[in-house]
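$ run holo --ligand "magnesium ion" --emit tokens
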Amino acid sequence: MALAIYRKYRPATFDDVIGQETTVRILREAARRDTLAHAYLFAGPRGTGKTTTARLVAKIANCERRGTDAAFRATGEPCNACRLCREIDEGRSLDVVEIDAASNRGIDEIRNLKENVRLAPIAARAKVFIIDEAHQLTPPAWNALLKTLEEPPASVYFVLATTEADRIPATIVSRTQQCYFRYIGLEALTSKLSRIAEREGIVIEHEALDLIAAAAEGSFRDAESLLDQLATGGTPLTVRDVEAAIGKVGFETLARFIDRLVARDLPAALQDLAAIQDGGFNLAQFTKDIIIYLRRMLVIKHAPALATVLARELVPEHLARIAAHAAHRGSAPTVLLRALIVAYGQMRYSQFPLVILEVALVESLSSPLTASSS
Ligand SMILES: Nc1ncnc2c1ncn2[C@@H]1O[C@H](COP(=O)(O)OP(=O)(O)O)[C@@H](O)[C@H]1O
Ligand SMILES: [Mg+2]
Ligand SMILES: [Zn+2]
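-- output --
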């Protein structure tokens, strides 16, 4: 059976970890100098490499080449060939224990862990405990863990991973080295996706790939899972396929709708809207997408320097398109924004989301454009 894409393309080396340069640099240095900390806290959004990197820590703590090999000393990379590296990659190592704090809040696990920590590694050099979703641990589990972190045995390492760093007790945090994982920019997402598509022989439109990346909101896992889910048919993937799967219109459809708004072409806007409703798209989601688009126009118009921030969230062609809309004489993002934000609030609880959106458009597009309405 084919491996899920996100497993198959999980980075096996630090080199393959994308977008987490600071963390990677710190860990490679620690590997090279043999100065791994006994406890790390990996904090950041989902799908950005926390579990992946925790397994890399397990490998560099254990790799059989670490003592002798010049390449290891030079790069801080696991060899991925020795028995210990391979066991860890395959999830077979008895000395690398992954605990999912979300599934049982960790009480039994931490109790077992306290016992387990005292025993020497079974086959490996070091024991590594990876505690995922660590913010879910209960107070008794934290207490047990704290005792261990106060005096960790020489061959024991912990990696706590969490999406909610502020829910980790300060007493724990202060005993860890913290590494922050960042949201992944669109560019990085699309380039990894297209590499995967190429290797897997998945034929996919450029725009469809962009939409998958945008829908993943900074998460490699979400992007890779969506590609996986869509690629089962063996037929070329179009932006329509992706739109249908995520219930969200793509950039092209959205930008064309914005064309109507800046041209103040009410009949065309209403027609497009009807078509989008017919396509079965979630209109509240569509409204949200318009709001985000208009907000970006506003930012570009009034704070051009912020375009560099937007450049991280958008591919260059899309950014250029938004900038062109922002520069359009007829654009009145504030008037529309105000109306759409009110509409969005009402739509989600209404039986008539389409009507609410139509009314908002009619009112804001048919009112005269005044100097203050830009
Ligand atoms: N920084 C990254 N570079 C490359 N691929 C990544 C990265 N982060 C995540 N991935 C991909 O997403 C999948 C899930 O990543 P994972 O490390 O489990 O995320 P997290 O633990 O932060 O939720 C990985 O198997 C890999 O394919
Ligand atoms: Mg994880
Ligand atoms: Zn190795």
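-- notes --
The pocket of zinc ion (ligand 3) is lined by residues 63-65, 78-79, 82, 84-85 (CB under 6 Å).
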